[in-house]
Amino acid sequence: MNTQGSNVIAAPHGMEAQQAELADRIARNIPGDGLHDSIVPGLSLIQASEPSLPLPGVYHPSLCVVVQGSKRALLGEDVFHYDALNYLVVSMSLPITGQILDATPNSPYLCLRIDIDTALVNELLQQLPAERASRRGGRAVFVGRTSPTLLDAVLRLVRLIDTPEEAGILAPLATREIHYRVLTGELGGRLRELCDVEGPSQRVARAIDLIKQRYHEPLRIEQLAAAAHMSASSLHERFKAATAMTPLQYQKQLRLQEARRLMLVDGIEAAAASHRVGYESPSQFSREYRRLFGAPPRREVMAMRGPAG
User: Fold this and answer.
1) Whose CA is closest to 96, among 119, 62, 66, 51?
2) Where do the domains of the chain lie?
3) Looking only at Cα atoms, what is the longest distance across the chain?
4) Phi and psi dihedrals of 14, rounded to 5?
5) CB count, 10 Å around CB of 27?
6) What is the CATH architecture of 251-304?
7) Least confidently predicted of 107-111, 257-261, 298-302
8) 46 touches 36 (CB < 8 A)
9) Per residue in 17-35, pLDDT tens?
10) Is 141 helix (H, G, I), strand (E, B) or coil?
């Protein structure tokens, strides 16, 4: 099992003040636990008052900056720890299991999620010194050390929540700087790979787009390979390197995630939800659902709808 991220180094004094201000601003701008969109486009605020069980979900391209507490993300056998000293970047849509580790009512877990704008990344790359693309096609998720300059840009973006009349003009500037800080940081090359049109990350992303569009249909590896402009064997290898799963396993997780959403949000019965996402066998659906979420569909959804949900 590979583990990334660390919390053994104390934050510089200036960063402690930045984190304290961020924590105060988040707490004042959200009604309670959960994920909340802000008035700033592409910026969401997250709070949790207690640790959580491992919860599978689909993470879309984003930068997650923890302000208080800590969390871990599991992708296959890889474990990514991130806290107030480390940020998490997800460069393509991935089924990831997340678990909040440190949170209490008096000191809740607080996090910012900033959507990654690939068009902005491409624009910045045109202005940065050219680097030879590694085209290694590694994991599409990574943890980097939070720098004072990155945290400062994040703080300026969050302050705009309290000045909505300025957000339309200043938010794009802060967002641009945040992307720049990540691109020029210690692991910026990993984000650059996402925008290398001929690189493996971009090719795998094309296959993922097709799976997302047609997750409920039977798909053959040859169809995905054609969309990615790769051979079937090469796609299989690169896909697993990026996502820690095969295309079929990826599709299965999307199906189960969507079925869960249909039951939890739309109130659809398990049998109807399983059929809608492409399952022909209710027993197979129940078996695979339990394997991913830890309980049969009906029981898991009822637990999520309980008082704690």
Assistant:
1) 62
2) 2-191, 200-245, 251-304
3) 58
4) -60, -35
5) 14
6) Orthogonal Bundle (1.10)
7) 298-302
8) yes
9) 999 999 999 999 999 999 9
10) strand
The rounded distance, in Å, linking the Cα atoms of 266 and 256 is 15
Among 4, 170, 172, 25, residue whose Cα is nearest residue 83:
4
pLDDT tens figures, 241-253: 999 999 999 999 9
DSSP, res 208:
H
CATH architecture of 2-191: Sandwich (2.60)
Please give, one letter per residue, the 3-state secondary structure of 231-278.
Answer: CHHHHHHHHHHHHCCCHHHHHHHHHHHHHHHHHHCCCCCHHHHHHHCC
**Chain-centre distance of CA 285, in angstroms?**
25
Find out whether 46 and 134 touch, Cβ atoms under 8 Å.
no
Query: For residue 185, how many other CB atoms are within 10 A of its CB?
Result: 19
Look up residue 101 and give its two tokens: 């580790």
CA distance 26 to 46: 8
Residues 217, 202: Cα–Cα separation, whole Å: 23
Question: Helical H runs in the chain?
Answer: 13-29, 118-125, 148-159, 164-183, 188-194, 200-213, 221-228, 232-243, 247-264, 270-276, 282-293, 297-304
